[in-house]
Amino acid sequence: MNFWLVKSEPDAYSYDKLEAEGRGMWDGVRNYAARNNLRAMKEGDQVLFYHSNIGMEVVGICQVAKEHYPDPTAESGDWSVVEVIPVRRIKRPITLKEIKATPELANIALIKQSRLSVMPLTAEEFEKILKMSK
Predict the structure, then answer these.
(1) Which residues of the chain have pLDDT under 70?
(2) Which of 4, 12, 20, 134 is the most exposed place for a label (fewest CB within 10 A)?
């Protein structure tokens, strides 16, 4: 199993909306590195859901329910989507400020490549964020 973090502006697509829908298509990604990360996701992989711009915090866990296929929202180009399902909210949202202040998380793409919307995490990074929420 692999671990990931996806970012979305909560006024565009929030964890609340994912929970309400029960399943969401992660579409609209127009960055090659993020697209390649989508293509590397496998069914069952665990994903942290991060609210960007508003809140700037990890708020929940979702899971890859369907591996990549062509993005139906793309008018041109070679873009992909995956489908995710909500797993659960984390007990306490973890802010970007907390992540930046945690030495074990110093190398995650959320800090190093802040514009990247889909990024890999190590199992240790994933678990560290979950432990911080308790």
Answers:
(1) none
(2) 134
Which of 4, 87, 100, 83 lies closest to 43 in space, CA to CA? Answer: 83
User: Per-residue pLDDT tens for 76-107?
Assistant: 999 999 999 999 999 999 999 999 999 999 99
Sort residue 97 into left (φ over 0), alpha (ψ -120 to 50) or beta. Answer: alpha
Report the distance separating Cα 83 and Cα 23, nearest Å.
7
Range of the domain at 8: 3-132
As a whole number of angstroms, the distance between CA 6 and CA 28 comes to 12
Q: Which residues contact 116 (CB under 8 A, 6 or more apart)?
A: 7, 31, 33, 34, 37, 109, 110
The answer to whether the predicted template modeling score (pTM) of the entire model surpasses 0.85 is: yes
Looking at residue 10, which CATH number applies to its domain?
3.10.590.10
Round to whole Å and give the CA distance between 99 and 79.
30
Q: How far, in Å, CA of 76 to CA of 117, rounded? A: 20
